[in-house]
Design a protein that fits this description.
ARM-type_fold, coiled coil, API5, transmembrane, mainly alpha, Apoptosis inhibitor 5
């Protein structure tokens, strides 16, 4: 702790001599060189005390130009003088605008001193430059952002505290200055500084958004605009971090208007290269189809009509017309049938020309006069084949579970864990097959009733507690325990109003073989979380 700046001179010199004797073994009162050095140091500190005392007592401090110039000059003195100057320069800065440039330059030099104590003291003083001269906020924040590269913990801590002080003082200017280090796409941008600033914003700013972003609506809009600019050149992880943050704002929260939800979707769209070839790895296709199924209840009739042709095309791809001995991917079929039901329930007559149904709505799009009987025959044959495969698989899984129960009695602990996993997989498989049978049954009719509510509980989703009796499957098929289905939700179609257009444009492009480089799954996930 520093001595009080304005203590009497004699006491200050006495303390200085004692400090030198205690902490500098080489110091000797009898050594000419040491005595001379100590005398110079004492003289510098004595002068600084005098400058500070006069400035502190002066009513019109701007008249004491010589005193402030002396303080600035002392920044070139001894280590102790530099630490004292680091306190005095920002303290009286506002009174000498004509010396502002030289004062700031001298203080910044102190931030780069070899002595850690000097650097830390200088860093702590940086926010004081902006207390009465807010026009310096951007410059000081920019400097502190660069100082985040400091290796010493105590120094880095001082930098972070100084930045937080400025954020509380002027959040708008401070955020703007920080984000310049992120949004810049110039080659000269220091990537290391950019990473440090990103980490600071993620770890220190985002968690305190409720405290810092005031007034809330204005500042949330400001930081949203800054994030938009920053998304021009980000990694996948950075993109997700920013989107997750935006979703946490009230602006895009649970009570967000359709316009705000659409804005969030458009932010994602701005990063999407919709003409890029969709190159989704095989292991990610199931994730895409699951997300597609979960988002299908929230589409609009217009979007449903647009996407249905692609869904039917995929159903024909994964639902064989005849048994060939090749394995069918049951979860793919479950996802696609679930999606088909929800989309067709919103645009029922669109299925006439796709599947040969005869659903009359009175609209020209019914196309009742046209013959699509071949489509109907093809589609229902595929449904029948899927049902046969599902029943056969259910029988095999049930028998397998009986065998697993027998093995469990005499198995070791290690083997028991393996058997439990097998049983869990078998249970999920039974749910999948049961769902498929429940969804194929109504589709055999010429004018089917599509399942547009949440009666079907997808096999990978936890069943809800308030279940209703299950949809009856084909004759002779008993719905296994644990395959409870969700209750109907008549409000489901109301969710996501105005927010499904872009998502479904991406779905259609994805199924056509094109997708943005930003993973399609993230886009689906963003809308689902915002809507729910």
């Amino acid at each position: 702790t520093h001595l009080q700046i304005f203590a009497p001179l004699q006491f200050s010199l006495f303390i200085f001599l004692i400090f030198s004797l205690l902490y500098f073994p080489g110091f000797s009162l009898s050594s000419p060189s040491s005595t001379l050095a100590a005398s110079d140091d004492a003289k510098d500190i004595e002068n600084l005390y005098e400058y500070g005392e006069r400035l502190n007592e002066a009513k019109d401090k701007s008249q004491n130009v010589k005193d402030y110039e002396g303080i600035i000059k002392a920044a070139k003195g001894s280590s102790k003088a530099k630490q004292l100057a680091a306190q005095l320069i920002p303290r009286f800065f506002k009174h000498f605008p004509e010396l502002s440039s030289s004062a700031v330059d001298a203080h910044l030099d102190l931030c780069e001193e070899e002595d850690l104590g000097v650097r830390v003291q200088a860093i702590r003083g940086l926010p004081l430059f902006c207390k009465d001269t807010p026009e310096y906020v951007s410059k000081i924040v920019d400097i502190l952002a660069q100082l985040l590269m400091a290796e010493e913990n105590v120094e880095r801590d001082a930098v972070q505290k100084a930045l937080m002080s400025l954020l509380r003082q002027d959040v708008k200017a401070s955020l703007s200055a920080l984000f310049k280090h992120i949004e810049s796409i110039e080659e000269s941008t220091d990537e290391n500084i950019r990473e440090k600033v990103l980490a600071f914003i993620r770890d220190k700013v985002f968690p305190l958004k409720a405290e810092l972003l005031k007034p809330q609506e204005q500042m949330e809009r400001h930081i949203t605009d800054l994030v938009k600019k920053s998304l021009r050149d980000v990694t996948g992880a950075e993109f997700k971090m920013f989107i997750d943050f935006l979703k946490s704002l009230n602006l895009f929260g649970d009570k967000a208007s359709p316009e705000r939800v659409q804005e969030l979707i458009e932010i994602i769209e701005s990063q999407a290269d919709l003409d890029a070839q969709f190159d989704l790895p095989e292991e990610r296709k199931l994730d895409l189809l699951k997300n597609l199924a979960e988002s299908s209840p929230y589409t609009t009739p217009q979007d449903a009509r647009q996407i249905l042709p692609s869904i039917v095309q995929l159903l024909k791809k994964y639902m064989p017309r005849k048994r060939t001995g090749e394995e069918m991917n049951f979860t793919y079929v479950e996802c696609l049938l679930y999606t088909f039901h929800h989309l067709a329930s919103k645009a029922p007559n669109a299925s006439n020309s796709l599947c040969g149904y005869k659903i009359v709505t009175g609209q020209p799009s019914d196309r009742i006069g046209e013959d699509f009987s071949e489509y109907y025959k093809d589609f229902t044959e595929r449904l029948s084949c899927v049902e046969e495969l599902s029943r056969a698989t259910m029988k095999k899984l049930t028998q397998g579970m009986d065998e697993q129960n027998k093995r469990m009695a005499s198995a070791s602990n290690e083997v028991k864990d393996k058997i439990k996993t097998e049983k869990q997989n078998a249970t999920t498989g039974l749910k999948t097959c049961n769902n498929i049978l429940a969804m194929t049954q109504p589709l055999h009719k010429n004018s089917p009733s599509f399942i547009g509510d949440k009666r079907i509980n997808l096999s990978w989703k936890e069943p809800v507690k308030s279940a209703v009796p299950s949809v009856a499957a084909n004759a002779g098929v008993k719905r296994p325990a644990g395959a409870a289905v969700n209750g109907s939700n008549s409000n489901a179609a109301k969710k996501g109003c105005g927010a499904g257009g872009f998502q479904n444009q991406l779905v259609n492009r994805a199924l056509d073989g094109k997708i943005p480089r930003i993973q399609f799954l993230l886009i689906i996930d963003v809308q689902l979380e915002v809507e729910e």
